[in-house]
Design a protein that fits this description.
The structure holds 2 protein chains of 2 kinds. Chain A is elongated. About 2% of the residues of chain A have low confidence. Chain A contains 13 helices and 10 strands. In chain A, helix 2 packs antiparallel against helix 9, helix 2 crosses helix 11 and helix 9 packs parallel to helix 12. Chain A has 2 domains: 184 residues, no CATH class; 177 residues, no CATH class. Chain B is α/β, with parallel strands linked by helices. Chain B contains 7 helices and 10 strands. In chain B, the strands form 2 sheets. Chain B has a 6-stranded mixed sheet. In chain B, strands 2-1-4-5 form a 4-stranded antiparallel sheet, with helices on one face. In chain B, a hairpin with a 2-residue loop joins strand 4 and strand 5. In chain B, helix 3 packs across helix 4, helix 4 packs across helix 5 and helix 5 runs parallel beside helix 6. The longest helix of chain B has 18 residues. The model of chain B has no long low-confidence stretch (mean pLDDT 92). Classes of the chains: A alpha+beta, B alpha/beta. Chains A and B meet through helix 1, helix 10, helix 11 and helix 13 of A and helix 2, strand 6 and helix 3 of B.
Chain lengths: 403, 234
C-alpha cells in the first residue's frame, strides 16, 4: 500500500512537472544555500588548519603585551624586548630549537625610478631557519655581516617584482630610508598567508644594521621561536612564560606584560570566526527553507482544492480517510525530497565552484547532506499535513459535486 | 434464483438542516431491493432520488430509520467502515463519468483494487478483464481525454465492475450522452444484469432509459409514490 502510494504520488507530481518544480524552488534554494555554506565553511577551516601546519605547528611567537598596540599618546607602551632576552630563551630552554629576534617597521624602499612601501625587518639567519625560508638566488647573511652590521639585505619576491621587474636584483643597491644597502639574497615566494597578507612583501637587514641605521635603538619587537621536534609546544610555551617573567622581573601576582602565542591559537581563532559566519549564513538559509515549506503548503492546498473531485472519486470507491491523508502527505514529502535532492546537487556544485574560486579544498560532509535530506522530508511532513488533513476530511458527496 | 434482499430501507428519513429551515429529503421511506434486480428510480428534481442513492451507496447516513445493506446495519457504521463496505460490495457509475484525468483507462479501472490492496499484476489482469467486458480492451492505455463520452462511461462501468461488487449504483449514467450512445450504455447495463446477475440501481429522468429496468420506483417529495415491477421479458 505504501509503495503504491509513493508510486501514485510520483505520478501526480510529474503530471504537472512545471508547477512541481516551481513549488519546490524554495526548498531547492534553502537546501542549496545550507549545503554550499557549510561545505565552503568547512573547506576554509580545513585550509586554515593545513596552512598552519605548513607554517609549522611548532612555531611560537613572543610579543610585548597588548599595551603596545594601544600605546598611543596617553597609553603606556609596554617594554620592548632585547637581544639578550632572546638569547636567554634560546640558551636556557632546551626544547627551544631556534629563537630569532625580530624588529620591524614600515619604510619606503627605492631602486632607480621605482619605489615601494614595504616591511623592513631586522633579524638574523636564525629567522630564515625557524620560519623555513628558502633562497631563490644569492645567499643568507654571513656571520661577519651580522656582527658588524653591514649594509646588506635580503628581499622577498614581491619587492623584487615591484622594483626590478625581470632583471636580476642580486648585487644591486637599494635605498631603505636613508640607507643604501646591497642585495645579497632573494627568498623563494611563500605566497599569501592564512591571514591574507602577502608574506613576500619585505626587506630583511641584519638586526644590528637595522638597530643602528633604521630604528636608532636596540629594541626587539618579537621572538620567532621554533620548538624542537617531538617536544610539547604547550610545555615549552609555559617554560618561555616563566623565563620571560623572570627576565622582565614581573612579581608574583602581577600580570604578564608580554604574550606567548602559538599558531594553533591563531588557527582556533580563525576557525571560530569561520564557524560563526557559517552559522549565521546557515541560519539565513534555514529561514529560506521555512519559506520553501510554506510554498509547498500553499501549492498543496491549491492542489487539494483542484483535485476535490478526484478525492471524491477515491472516497466513493472505498478509500479511507487515512489513505487519502497518506496520499497527500506522501506527495508533499516526495515533493520536498525532490527539492532537497536538487538543492543538495546545486549546493555541492556551488561549493565546488566556491572552493575553486577561494582556492580551498572541497570537503563535502556526508552528515550535513543527510541532515539536509532529512530536514526537507520534515518540511514536507509538517507543511504537507494540514492540506492532507483537509483532503481527508472532505465529504465524498460534496467533493463529487465540486466543479 | 433465490431472491435475497441486498438493500433494506426501513422507515428511512434524511433531514438537512434544523428547525424551520429543515429540508426533509427522504420522508419515512421503506424499500427493499432483491439481489439480481435492475431498478430504476425516477422523479422530478428535489424528489429525493439522489439522496436515496447516496444513502443506499453508503455515502450518506440517514437521519432516522434502519438501513441494512447485505445484512449489515449501516446506520451505526463509522465513516471508514462505510468506506470499507463501499470498497467490498459497491460499484459507482456517475453522470459525469468521474474518471481521473491524465490517468490511463487501465489505471482508472485499477483504482478500486489499489484500495483493496490487490497485488499489481493481479490488479492489471482484473482491470484488463473488466475493460474487455465493456469492449475497451484496445483503449486500455488511452487517457480519458482521448476517449469519447460513451467510451469514458464504459471505462467507468469497468471500474465499477472490477471489484466484483454486489450492487452497482448508476446515477444518471446516460445524462451526458446522445441517444445512440445512451442506448449502447443502457443495453450494456441490461446485459450485465441479465447475463451476470448484477444488481443495478439506476437514477434517471429519461423514461426510455427507465424502460430498460425491470422495476421502476417513482419518487415525489421524498416519498415513494409508485413501485412497479414488470415481468421479465422472455
Amino acid at each position: 500500500m505504501l509503495w503504491e502510494t509513493v508510486r501514485l504520488a510520483i505520478q501526480a507530481i510529474f503530471r504537472n512537472t512545471m508547477r512541481s518544480l516551481l513549488t519546490v524552488l524554495g526548498i531547492v534554494i534553502g537546501v542549496a544555500a545550507v549545503i554550499a555554506m557549510v561545505t565552503v565553511g568547512q573547506g576554509s577551516t580545513a585550509q586554515v588548519t593545513a596552512d598552519v601546519e605548513k607554517l609549522g605547528t611548532n612555531v611560537v611567537m613572543v610579543m610585548p603585551g597588548q599595551d603596545v598596540m594601544q600605546g598611543g599618546p596617553g597609553g603606556t607602551a609596554a617594554k620592548m624586548f632585547s637581544i639578550r632576552m632572546n638569547d636567554e630563551v634560546q640558551d636556557q630552554i632546551p626544547d627551544v630549537a631556534i629563537s630569532a629576534p625580530i624588529s620591524q617597521t614600515r619604510a619606503r624602499v627605492i631602486f632607480g625610478n621605482e619605489n615601494r612601501r614595504t616591511d623592513v625587518v631586522g633579524t638574523d639567519n636564525r629567522y630564515f631557519e625557524a620560519a623555513r625560508w628558502e633562497l631563490l638566488r644569492g645567499r643568507f647573511f654571513e656571520t661577519g655581516e651580522i656582527q658588524s652590521g653591514r649594509t646588506v639585505c635580503i628581499i622577498g619576491e614581491t619587492v623584487r617584482q615591484s622594483l626590478f621587474g625581470n632583471s636580476d636584483p642580486i648585487g644591486e643597491t637599494v635605498r631603505v630610508k636613508t640607507l643604501s644597502c646591497e642585495i645579497v639574497g632573494l627568498l623563494k615566494s611563500k605566497g599569501a598567508s592564512t591571514f591574507g597578507s602577502d608574506q613576500d612583501d619585505f626587506v630583511i637587514l641584519p638586526l644590528k644594521t637595522y638597530h643602528r641605521r633604521i630604528a636608532g635603538n636596540t629594541e626587539v619587537l618579537a621572538f620567532y621561536i621554533s620548538v624542537r621536534d617531538g617536544a610539547s609546544v604547550e610545555d615549552t610555551m609555559e617554560e618561555i612564560t616563566l623565563l620571560m617573567r623572570d627576565l622582565r622581573r614581573i612579581g608574583r601576582g602581577e600580570e604578564d606584560d608580554f604574550e606567548v602565542l602559538d599558531m594553533k591559537q591563531f588557527a582556533t581563532m580563525l576557525s571560530g570566526i569561520t564557524g560563526i559566519l557559517t552559522g549565521l549564513l546557515s541560519a539565513v538559509a534555514a529561514v529560506s527553507l521555512l519559506v520553501g515549506g510554506i510554498g509547498i503548503m500553499n501549492i498543496m492546498l491549491v492542489s487539494v482544492t483542484e483535485r476535490t473531485r478526484e478525492i471524491g472519486i477515491r472516497l466513493a470507491i472505498g478509500a479511507q480517510a487515512r489513505q487519502v491523508l497518506l496520499q497527500f502527505l506522501v506527495e508533499a514529502v516526495i515533493l520536498s525530497l525532490i527539492g532537497g535532492l536538487i538543492g543538495i546537487g546545486l549546493g555541492l556544485g556551488f561549493a565546488i565552484l566556491g572552493a575553486k574560486w577561494l582556492s580551498i579544498p572541497f570537503t563535502p560532509d556526508f552528515s550535513v547532506i543527510l541532515l539536509a535530506f532529512g530536514f526537507s522530508a520534515l518540511v514536507g511532513v509538517i507543511f504537507g499535513y494540514f492540506p492532507a488533513r483537509r483532503a481527508a476530511r472532505l465529504d465524498p458527496i460534496e467533493a463529487l459535486r465540486h466543479e | 434464483m433465490a431472491e435475497t434482499a441486498v438493500v433494506e430501507l426501513e422507515d428511512i428519513s434524511r433531514v438537512y438542516g434544523e428547525g424551520e429551515i429543515a429540508v426533509r429529503a427522504l420522508d419515512h421511506v421503506d424499500l427493499t431491493i432483491e439481489s439480481g434486480e435492475f431498478t430504476a428510480i425516477m422523479g422530478p428534481s428535489g424528489s429525493g432520488k439522489s439522496t436515496a442513492m447516496n444513502v443506499i451507496g453508503c455515502l450518506d447516513s440517514p437521519t432516522s430509520g434502519n438501513y441494512r445493506f447485505c445484512g449489515v446495519e449501516v446506520g451505526t457504521l463509522t465513516r471508514d467502515q462505510r468506506a470499507l463496505l463501499r470498497r467490498q460490495y459497491l460499484g459507482f457509475v456517475f453522470q459525469g463519468y468521474n474518471l481521473l484525468p491524465r490517468t490511463s483507462a487501465l489505471a482508472n479501472v485499477e483504482l478500486p483494487l489499489i484500495y483493496k490492496s490487490v497485488p499489481r499484476a493481479e490488479r492489471q489482469l482484473a482491470a484488463l478483464e473488466a475493460l474487455r467486458k465493456v469492449g475497451l480492451e484496445e483503449r486500455a492505455h488511452h487517457d480519458p481525454s482521448e476517449l469519447s463520452g460513451g467510451q469514458q462511461q464504459r471505462v467507468a462501468i469497468a471500474r465499477a465492475l472490477v471489484s466484483n461488487p454486489k450492487v452497482v449504483l448508476a446515477d444518471e449514467p446516460t445524462g451526458n450522452l446522445d441517444t445512440k450512445t445512451s442506448v449502447e450504455i443502457i443495453e450494456m447495463l441490461q446485459h450485465l444484469n441479465r447475463d451476470e446477475g448484477l444488481t443495478i440501481i439506476m437514477v434517471t429522468h429519461e423514461q426510455d432509459m427507465a424502460d430498460y429496468a425491470e422495476r421502476l420506483i417513482w419518487m415525489v417529495d421524498g416519498r415513494i409514490e409508485r413501485d412497479d415491477r414488470k415481468p421479465r421479458a422472455a
